[in-house]
C-alpha cells in the first residue's frame, strides 16, 4: 500500500469514498499547479452511481467546489472544466505569466486546446 489513506471505499458495495494522499511539493518550474505549501494533500472523491446519476454527481461536485471557495479553502482541480479566462487565471495563480510565456513559445499560433477557453479572448 502506498502513502495514500483510503477513508471509505469498497468496490463490492455501492458506496462513495475518498482517498487522501499527502504530497511533497516538487520543482516549482514545472507548469503543474500545486499549492504554495511544502506538503499538501491530494483528495480524490470516489463517487458511485449509474449513467443516469451523472447530473446529481456533477451538482454535488459543484457544491463542494463552491463550499471550498466560500470557506477560503485553497484547492486546485485535476482536469478542471472552467468557462472563462478568469477561472484559468485563478487556477494557475502565480504561474499564470509562466504559462502565457510557454504558450507563446510552444504554440504561437494558438492552435492547441481551443476548447479550454483559456486563450480565446487573449
Automatic annotation (TrEMBL):
Pfam families: Cytokin-bind. The keyword Iron-sulfur does not apply. Residues 23-119 form the Cytokinin dehydrogenase 1 FAD/cytokinin binding domain. Transmembrane segments: none annotated. Keywords: FAD, Flavoprotein, Oxidoreductase. GO terms for molecular function: cytokinin dehydrogenase activity; flavin adenine dinucleotide binding. GO terms for biological process: cytokinin metabolic process. Its cofactor is FAD. InterPro entries: Cytokinin_DH_FAD/cytokin-bd (IPR015345), FAD-bd_PCMH_sub1 (IPR016167), FAD-linked_Oxase-like_C (IPR016164), FAD-linked_Oxidoreductases_BP (IPR050432). PANTHER family: CYTOKININ DEHYDROGENASE 3, GULONOLACTONE OXIDASE. Belongs to the oxygen-dependent FAD-linked oxidoreductase family. This is Cytokinin dehydrogenase 1 FAD/cytokinin binding domain-containing protein.
